[in-house]
């Protein structure tokens, strides 16, 4: 394996992981906010 | 606080005198671990002799997990936790008491273990001052961390599996430092070992301090 | 007795609440973080030349140390929030500590992965008992321990209090583990193999990309922490909603049995 | 003068279960109160709450002049709780246990010795491990420890359970003596005939809330309306 392919692996794994984690947070947030009354999820920022 | 600590420690040691769990189960287990190491590392090669300090402290860590579990299973009985709160004992004192009783029992086991490795792994005793100091400081650290993590896991249904998982990574610095200090002592170069002793002392002080400060809120919960 | 449902029903249009964990600020933050990451990738792969000693491998060093930094940052946040929880007992501080630890675990894992991927072509092996790598692995185990304790099946107050004690211990543990591992390795070799094989001073672009990597990853970290916290907050809200209903059901038992009992009143909003 | 127990809208959670769902109760100093209700009504939780062992979720709870939300540790040392659990170390002897808990509570060892004598624990049983004792004997040890503490507020959860005739009479005598010296006593019991002779006031708790408070001078279960009697009592011989 060339050095560049290690680089794609080394960057790809973190980027994909962070993207998946972010997406999962957004999805979980959407699903949960349906169960919580609007009164209790007004974010101040 | 010290009065409460003495009371709790005396109580724990009295329970040990009456039940002899440490003497009749934990101590033989420690010796068994020494035998197992010999089976795993062929005793005729020099591996066993070279690894003696590390094997000693790994055995101590195994014993610690058992001793901590024993120490807090005592307090798990028949509403005892509530009774301790009702008695108005000082939480810091309870921590120090449990800590002291644990340290005394561990030290007894360690002395026997040390004799065991010297005999079985054919090492000569050297650097006694450093050995004794390391043993005291390391055991104080192990005892303080063990008491704190013991109460964190106490009373949970998953405590047997949770305790070693939480406690052993935290004791890694103790394992490293105590092993290196023992190595220098047994190899006859104690001056290399004293920085490790300092690290052990810092570890013990940090854990005793945090233990005294946080034990209150851990006893407080329902 | 007013239930939260009653409140929201009475002001259906008066409340502007988002349908998720996003808000205007977090959206801006998200866009900025995404743009910064894009720019970082461009800087690392296109703008930067190969390093004289490291070759292409240097490109990973724009990411790896930044990930490690956020992992340590997460530990500090978790410990600070845990101290706050033990002092004040607020729900938010427990959620913040838990969010920081979970995120810290992700970042620590990624630090390990990137370090390992960098190490394979450099040293020829995936893992060496390098001081920094080893103490990062220990950090990962400590964080997993916190997450395991936070997952136990116990009363919420018990769980958060015990987790908070563990959180307070996080930073001291990290320092002690780090110190001991560092000394342990210096006995046999240099403390870390990472530092000595390249030379930053030579290029301003290297320096800039390196620092920009920290900024970009920290922005991503902040966005993630904000959203993770909000998810935790929503979970807490869902969990505490049962309370009003449960009290109502419990009261019904009493009313069913009594005919001339004194009616009990009292606010039970949390 | 402030009541010894003063609860307003107290909600108390056991995990996720609201064991107490809004309790209002006042008990004056020197009173003996009977707490009655079916199993799972919240009697034990109410006693534990008054002992400062159970966090107050909402409402205000004051016991012995202290707010339980902030000063429960000041309350705990002044109450005596006799619970289902006996608070004993199985591996210690009776004498060890009494000695430890008496010293822990900073009570007088001579008092403890007298209490052990009165409960028949001073001689043969003193050196026996608690794990060898019968239920009734364990209860006696718990009562002896309670007596040595000289509590200002006695919280007795089923004090007669598991005891022989002699033990039950002894409990009744102790309650009367405590009230005579100005202590307050709350008894949770299913043995209404016995408890009612002690307690002029009966508090009924059902479903985590108080449903009836009757002040009888004519003591006895007849004084309690039939529909308020819990199942266990109606079917009792």
Could you walk me through the main structural features you see in this protein, from its secondary elements to its overall organization?
The complex is a heterotetramer of chains A (45), B (222), C (270) and D (237). Chain A is mainly alpha-helical and 45 residues long. Chain A contains one helix and no strands. The mean pLDDT of chain A is 84. With 270 residues, chain C is mainly alpha-helical. Chain C has one domain (26-193, 204-238). Helices cover 72% and strands 0% of the residues of chain C. Chain C is built from seven helices and no strands. The longest helix of chain C is centred in the C-terminal third of the chain and has 54 residues, at 204-257. The termini of chain C are close together. Chain D has a domain at 85-150. Chain D is globular, with a radius of gyration of 17 Å. Classes of the chains: A mainly alpha (45), B mainly alpha (222), C mainly alpha (270), D alpha/beta (237). At the A-C interface, helix 1 of A face helix 1, helix 2, helix 4 and helix 7 of C.
Could you report the average pLDDT of chain B, rounded to the nearest whole number? 90
Count of individual beta strands of chain B: 0
Class from helix and strand fractions of chain D = alpha/beta
Helix content of chain B: over 70%
Q: Main sheet of chain D?
A: 6 strands, mixed
Briefly note the structural class of the backbone of chain B.
Answer: mainly alpha
Total number of beta strands of chain D: 10
* Rg of Cα set of chain B: 18 Å
In terms of DSSP E residues, the strand content of chain D is 25-35%
What order do the strands of the largest sheet of chain D run in, or round the barrel if closed? Answer: 6-7-8-3-9-10
Q: Helical proportion of chain D?
A: 25-40%
Distance between the termini of chain B: 22 Å
Specify the number of helices of chain B.
Answer: 9
Tell me, briefly, the overall form of chain B: globular
Write down the oligomeric state. Answer: heterotetramer
Poorly predicted runs of 5 or more residues of chain B: none
CA-based shape of chain D: globular
Q: Biggest interface and which pair forms it?
A: A-C, 34 and 51 residues
Please, how many domains of chain B?
1
Q: Can you write the helix and strand succession of chain D as a string?
A: EEEHEEHEHHHEHEHEEH
């Amino acid at each position: 394996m060339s050095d560049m392919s290690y680089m794609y692996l080394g960057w790809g794994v973190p980027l994909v992981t962070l993207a998946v984690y972010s997406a999962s947070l957004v999805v979980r947030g959407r699903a949960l906010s349906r169960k919580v009354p609007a009164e209790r999820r007004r974010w101040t920022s | 606080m010290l009065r409460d600590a003495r009371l709790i420690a005396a109580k724990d040691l009295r329970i040990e005198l009456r039940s002899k769990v440490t003497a009749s189960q934990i101590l033989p287990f420690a010796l068994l671990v020494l035998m197992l190491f010999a089976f795993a590392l062929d005793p005729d090669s020099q591996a066993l002799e070279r690894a003696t300090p590390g094997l000693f402290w790994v055995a101590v860590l195994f014993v610690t997990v058992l001793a901590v579990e024993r120490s807090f299973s005592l307090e798990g009985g028949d509403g005892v936790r509530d009774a301790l709160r009702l008695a108005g004992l000082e939480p810091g004192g309870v921590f120090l008491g449990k800590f002291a009783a644990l340290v005394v029992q561990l030290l007894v086991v360690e002395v026997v273990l040390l004799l065991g490795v010297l005999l079985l792994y054919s090492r000569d005793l050297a650097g006694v001052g450093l050995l004794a100091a390391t043993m005291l400081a390391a055991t104080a650290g192990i005892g303080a961390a063990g008491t704190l993590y013991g109460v964190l896991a106490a009373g949970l249904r998953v405590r047997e599996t949770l305790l070693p998982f939480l406690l052993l990574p935290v004791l890694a610095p103790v394992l490293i430092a105590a092993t290196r200090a023992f190595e220098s002592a047994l190899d006859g170069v104690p001056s290399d070992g004293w920085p490790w002793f300092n690290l052990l002392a810092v570890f013990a002080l940090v854990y005793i301090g945090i233990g005294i400060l946080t034990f209150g809120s851990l006893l407080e919960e329902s | 007795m007013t239930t939260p449902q009653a409140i929201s029903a009475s002001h259906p249009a008066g409340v502007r609440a988002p349908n998720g964990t996003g808000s205007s600020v977090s959206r801006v933050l998200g866009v900025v973080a995404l743009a910064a990451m894009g720019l970082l990738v461009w800087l690392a792969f296109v703008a930067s030349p190969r390093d004289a000693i490291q070759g292409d491998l240097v490109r990973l060093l724009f990411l790896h140390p930044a990930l490690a930094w956020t992992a340590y940052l997460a530990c500090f946040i978790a410990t600070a929030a845990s101290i706050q929880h033990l002092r004040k007992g607020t729900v938010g501080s427990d959620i913040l500590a838990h969010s920081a630890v979970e995120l810290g675990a992700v970042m620590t894992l990624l630090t390990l992965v990137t370090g390992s991927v960098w190490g394979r072509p450099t040293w020829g092996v995936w893992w060496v008992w390098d001081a920094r790598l080893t103490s990062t692995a220990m950090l990962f185990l400590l964080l997993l321990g916190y997450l395991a304790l936070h997952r136990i099946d116990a009363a919420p107050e018990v769980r958060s209090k015990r987790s908070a004690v563990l959180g307070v211990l996080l930073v001291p543990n990290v320092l002690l583990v780090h110190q001991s591992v560092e000394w342990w390795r210096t006995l046999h070799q240099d403390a870390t193999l990472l530092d000595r094989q390249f030379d930053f001073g030579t290029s301003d672009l290297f320096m800039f990309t390196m620092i920009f990597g920290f900024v970009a990853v920290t922005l991503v970290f902040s966005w993630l922490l904000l959203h993770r916290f909000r998810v935790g907050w929503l979970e807490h809200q869902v969990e505490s909603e049962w309370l009003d209903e449960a009290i109502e059901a419990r009261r019904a038992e009493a009313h069913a049995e009594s005919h001339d009992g004194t009616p009990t009143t009292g606010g039970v909003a949390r | 003068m402030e009541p010894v127990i003063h609860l307003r809208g107290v909600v108390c959670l056991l995990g996720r279960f609201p064991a107490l769902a809004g309790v209002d109760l006042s008990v004056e100093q020197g009173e003996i109160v009977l707490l009655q209700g079916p199993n799972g009504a919240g009697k034990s939780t109410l006693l534990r709450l008054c002992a400062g062992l159970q966090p107050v979720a909402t409402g205000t709870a004051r016991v012995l002049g202290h707010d339980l939300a902030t000063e429960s540790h000041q309350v705990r040392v002044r109450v005596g709780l006799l619970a289902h659990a006996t608070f004993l170390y199985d591996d210690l002897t009776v004498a060890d246990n009494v000695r430890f808990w008496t010293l822990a509570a900073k009570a007088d060892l001579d008092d403890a010795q007298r209490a052990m004598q009165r409960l028949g624990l001073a001689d043969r049983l003193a050196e026996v491990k608690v794990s060898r004792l019968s239920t009734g004997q364990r209860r006696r040890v718990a009562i002896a420890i309670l007596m040595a503490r000289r509590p200002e507020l006695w919280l007795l959860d089923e004090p007669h359970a598991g005891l022989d005739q002699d033990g039950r009479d002894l409990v009744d005598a102790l309650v009367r003596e405590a009230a005579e010296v100005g202590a307050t006593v709350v008894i949770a019991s299913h043995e209404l005939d016995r408890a009612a002779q002690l307690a002029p006031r009966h508090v009924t708790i059902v479903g985590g809330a108080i449903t009836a408070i009757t002040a009888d001078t004519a003591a006895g279960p007849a004084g309690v309306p039939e529909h308020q009697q819990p199942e266990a009592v109606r079917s009792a011989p």
